[in-house]
Specification:
CATH topology of the largest domain in chain B: Cytochrome C Oxidase, Chain A
Radius of gyration of chain B: 25 Å
Number of strands of chain B: 2
Helix content of chain B: 55-70%
Number of helices of chain B: 20
CATH class of chain A: Mainly Alpha
Structural class of chain A: mainly alpha
Largest sheet of chain B: 2 strands, antiparallel
Protein name (chain A): Cytochrome (Ubi)quinol oxidase subunit III
Strand order of the largest sheet of chain B: 1-2
Organism (chain A): Polycladospora coralii
Number of helices of chain A: 7
Family (chain A): Belongs to the cytochrome c oxidase subunit 3 family.
GO molecular function, one term (chain A): cytochrome-c oxidase activity
Order of helices and strands of chain A: HHHHHHH
Number of domains of chain A: 1
CATH superfamily of the largest domain in chain B: Cytochrome c oxidase-like, subunit I domain
Membrane topology (chain A): Multi-pass membrane protein
Distance between the termini of chain B: 55 Å
Oligomer: heterodimer
Chain lengths: ~210, ~650
């Protein structure tokens, strides 16, 4: 925005998302936002680890967690991260249709993950493990639920960006948006890796 | 929903009356009005002024609460404000001063000054800047509405559980705290990200990191602290909200929860927070002392290093607020050593200020008086800080007036003195008018003497055994005369604040003389452009050729900055009403959740927020351009 000199510096590079100063700002600002998100999730993880044994005679993590289901969910989410990389690569080659296809796959996998998670929560509630039943319950749903809320937001966000890309094509205005949404999606994925190890795997060994 | 409809209708009605009737031109007249211009602005200077002004309003409210506290404690066994009411005043005094006065006053200064100091035309995210301000305002209003609807929060500004849980704090008080701070906290986080991105990406050519003025550097580090500290508060408040509103058990020990958890989350945020409000004051001091000593800042690089080090260490000292919890000697010792270590970079700063003045051509303007008053006052606060950092001694000082004296020495003697100094220093740049020096000096002396009279005796109150947060004390245990002295000191601070109010009124409404571009013989970029600056700040981005960029040019005998680009059309972001709509959405949502029982309003507010976010995302807006001819015209007017 400051000058045209800035706009033209990145001709050689094919990274459309950082071709303008606005784009650069957006990408940098989003990395900073993700740093804040790291602290947010770190606090939730800390809370969970501090409270995870306080089950108050309700079901424990050993009894509750079914790793088979969680592994399927993990596979879905990790694959969606890969497809979002494909989408970004398509974006930088200016291939709108290909990008939309991979974004669509990403959203679809995200939705599948979300459905599995909802199924899992409903199942736990039937077993007497609720948000209000114990400190363990509160901490579990706060952490995994916050992740789920992030996935939900990501799905809505990426879908609405797909509509925008369809209408306006891939340009220096839409590219940074698409790029940061894919950063966000990777971040959700990384958080899930930690949830998988610190909540589910650790929950299975006691 | 009914109340909301009535409020909307009343607002439209009032707007129609003010703007002369409702007809087909109504909307255009609304859009042409000054109020609409300010409500929708994305100009960092206007947003800065709004931050600063709302900070002053909240500072007055918090000050009033302080006066009431001292009135109650003036004599033993007083019954002016007993029990619950006293707790509410005390809680709101602390919460208001930290979150709604100190932070916005500093954000205001950062917003106006930092882009000018780095030679930028705007901040990185003008829209988010406005959003951050309106979120802060929404949160501040929610917090203060508590006085009228159901009672203010009364669990202390730290809102420790279990006291803050439903069982011991029934009623909506703590809900106002939780949701008000959550909303204003999100605003602060947004501002922090904005400042960081601005300072990293928007510097003018030649403005390398080690040429940035100290105020920019401290803003940068304080923003990094905001970025990493705010989310801890967000989580703490979120969990407390779940416990209070939705029956979760994070902090309820009967259900396996932990009250120490809240203390950790709160202080992981809370300790960096005190550096968030003190570091910018350090930056202000460095600018002012250097300018009014007519010398380059002594030890610039060590100042930058000390700032970064304080920011870094600020994250590993939070347990010193919790020495008496019983976390064990090992953790207490580690945090004690880390806390004392912060004394080293802070000491570096103090000596650098002294050496900057040494042999300088000192001018005692009001700004310089505040800066010079800052140093000994802050040193006293720092020394009691090191005393408090010793765990065995802390067991004696903990929760006594000694602690109250300590943190008022650093927060008033540090942050508030710094803000007053900055107000006098940068006022011409913000408003294009000068503040009256005589009134300013009167303010300094009354406030300075009043401050020390109020808080110096409180050290002894603490050592003699008076606990903090209590609403009364017994006669004949040796606390009467000290408490009386402490209350008398308030008169001085009140007079000083009134003088400041008169000074502001005088400068904005009575004084007609315009401020010169460079009233103090300044050294940094902001003094190279007119006061107040044009909306695009710099007609041509300046080329920075050294630290103290303007001084370098002055020493080379030049009157203007060297331009880094030819005169050309300038791109500007367009105003937007969406930040205000989003803030209204979260405001309605916050109030809806506080009302409890029926959450439809809470959800309705979030829907408004969501719709506004979609509108923003789908909006195609490339801003507008200011052409060189217009810039030339502006220049002509200035000369």
């Amino acid at each position: 925005m400051a000058s045209d000199a800035h706009t033209n510096t990145n001709h050689a590079s094919n990274h459309l998302e950082t071709a303008t100063l606005e784009g650069k700002n957006k990408v940098l600002g989003f990395w900073l936002f993700l740093a804040a998100e790291v602290v947010l999730f770190a606090c939730l993880f800390g809370t969970y680890l501090a409270l995870k044994s306080q089950t108050m005679s309700g079901p424990t993590s050993m009894e509750l967690f079914d790793l088979n289901l969680v592994i399927v969910a993990t596979a879905l989410l990790l694959t969606s991260s890969l497809t979002s990389v494909f989408a970004m690569s398509a974006m930088n080659q200016r291939k709108l249709k290909l990008m939309q296809f991979w974004l669509g796959v990403t959203v679809f996998l995200g939705l599948a993950f979300l459905i599995l998670e909802i199924y899992e929560f409903v199942h736990y509630i039937h077993l007497g493990h609720t948000f209000m039943s114990s400190a363990f319950g509160s901490a579990f749903y706060a952490l995994v639920g916050t992740h789920g809320a992030h996935v939900t937001f990501g799905i809505i966000w990426i879908s609405s960006l797909m509509i925008q890309a369809q209408k306006r094509g891939i340009n220096t205005d839409t590219a940074p948006k698409l790029f940061v949404s894919s950063l966000y999606w990777h971040f959700i994925d990384v958080v899930w890796v930690f949830i998988f190890s610190l909540v589910y795997l650790l929950g299975k060994v006691g | 929903m009914g109340t909301l409809t009535i409020m909307v209708v009343v607002a439209l009605f009032l707007a129609a009356i003010v703007l002369g009737g409702y007809n087909k031109n109504f909307l255009e007249r609304v859009k042409g009005s000054t109020v609409w211009d300010w409500m929708t602005t994305v100009d960092h200077k206007k947003i800065g002024i709004m931050y600063f002004m709302s900070g002053i309003v909240f500072f007055l409210i918090g000050g009033l609460e302080a006066i009431l506290i001292r009135l109650q404690l003036m004599v033993p066994a007083n019954d002016l404000f007993v029990g619950d009411i006293y707790n509410q005043i005390l809680t709101m005094h602390g919460t208001t001063m930290i979150f709604l006065a100190a932070m916005p006053l500093l954000f205001g200064l950062m917003n106006v000054i930092v882009p000018l100091q780095i030679g930028a035309r705007d901040v990185a995210f003008p829209f988010l800047n406005s959003l951050g301000f309106w979120f802060f305002t929404a949160g501040g209003i929610i917090l203060n509405l508590s006085w009228f609807f159901g009672g203010a929060p009364d669990a202390g500004w730290t809102s420790y559980v279990s006291l803050a849980l439903n069982e011991y704090s029934p009623g909506p008080g703590v809900d106002y705290y939780v949701l008000g701070l959550q909303i204003s906290g999100i605003g602060s986080l947004i501002s922090g990200i904005n400042f960081l991105a601005t300072i990293i990406n928007m510097r003018t050519p030649g403005m390398t990191l080690l040429r940035m003025p100290l105020f920019t550097w401290t803003t940068f580090v304080a923003s990094a602290l905001l970025l990493f500290a705010m989310p801890a508060l967000t989580v703490g408040l979120l969990l407390l909200m779940f416990d209070r509103l939705f029956g979760a058990n994070f902090f309820d020990y009967t259900m396996g929860g932990s009250s120490v958890l809240w203390e950790h989350l709160f202080w992981i945020f809370g300790h960096p927070e005190v550096y968030i409000v003190i570091l910018p004051a350090f930056g202000i001091l460095s600018e002012i002392i250097s300018t009014f000593s007519k010398k380059r800042l002594f030890g610039y690089t060590s100042m930058v290093f000390a700032t970064v080090l304080i920011g870094f260490l600020g994250f590993m000292v939070w347990v010193h607020h919790m020495f008496t919890v019983g976390l064990g000697p090992v953790s207490n010792s580690i945090f004690a050593v880390a806390t004392m270590a912060i004394g080293v970079p802070t000491g570096i700063k103090v000596f650098n200020w002294l050496f900057t003045m040494w042999g300088g051509e000192i001018r005692f303007t009001t700004a310089m008086l505040w800066a010079v008053g800052f140093i000994p006052t802050f040193v006293v606060g720092g020394m009691t800080g090191v005393m408090l950092a010793v765990p065995p001694a802390d067991f004696q000082y903990h929760d006594s007036y000694f602690v109250v004296a300590h943190f008022h020495y650093v927060l008033v003697g540090g942050t508030v003195f710094g803000i007053f100094a900055a107000a006098f220093y940068w006022w011409p740049k913000m408003f294009g008018k000068m503040l009256h020096e005589g009134l300013g000096k009167f303010q300094f002396w009354t406030f300075f003497i009043g401050f020390h009279l109020t808080f110096f005796p409180q050290h002894f109150l603490g050592l003699f055994g008076m606990p903090r947060r209590v609403f009364t004390y017994q006669a004949n245990v040796g606390l009467e005369s000290i408490n009386m002295l402490s209350t008398i000191g308030v008169i001085g601070m009140t007079l000083g604040t009134l003088a400041f109010g008169i000074n502001i009124y005088r400068s904005l409404f009575i004084d007609k003389t315009k401020a010169p571009a460079d009233p103090w013989n300044g050294r940094t970029l902001e003094w190279a452009i007119s006061s107040p600056p044009p909306e695009y700040n710099f007609a041509q981005l300046p080329l920075v050729r050294g630290y103290d960029a303007l001084w370098v040019e002055k020493e080379a005998g030049k009157k203007e900055l060297t331009p880094a680009e030819p005169l050309g059309s300038i791109h500007m972001p367009s105003s937007s009403y969406l930040p205000l709509v989003m803030a209204i959405g979260v405001f309605i949502s916050g109030m809806g959740f506080i009302a409890r029982g029926d959450y439809s309003m809470g959800i309705f507010g979030l829907i408004i927020l969501g719709i506004a976010m979609f509108m923003r995302s789908f909006e195609v807006d490339h801003g507008y351009h200011i052409e060189p001819e217009e810039i030339e015209k502006d220049k002509g007017v200035d000369a």
